[in-house]
Amino acid sequence: MLTSLEIVKNIAGNSLIADAIDSAGLEVSKGIGLGNSLSASKAFPDLSIQMIQVGEQSGDLEKMLEKIASVYESEVETSVLSMTSLLEPVMILVMGVIFGFMVLSICLPIFEMNQLVM
To answer: How many domains does the chain contain in total?
Structure first.
C-alpha cells in the first residue's frame, strides 16, 4: 500500500493532495488506517473517506476504491453534460449577434444611399 501511495503522490497534479497523500503514507507506515490518516488532512470529501474506512473494516478496500472512482466519474460526467447543455444556447446567441452585425453592416449603407437619392 505504501508504494501505491507513493505512486499516487507523484502522479497527483495538485500539491495539496500530494502533501495529504504523503502525510497519510507516513501515518499508514506507523500503523494508522488509511481512512483515518486521510481524514486528518481535510483535502478529501467526507464520502470518500467514509467509504475507505468501510472498505478497510470489511476487508474490501479495492472494491470500495473502485466504487469511489465510479461515483466521482459519474459526477464529472454529469457536470460536463450540464456545462455542454449551457454552452449550446450561449453559442447560438453569439452566432446570432455576429449574424445580426453582418446583416446590419450590409443593410445600413443601402438605407443611407436610399435616403440620399430621395
So the answer is: 1
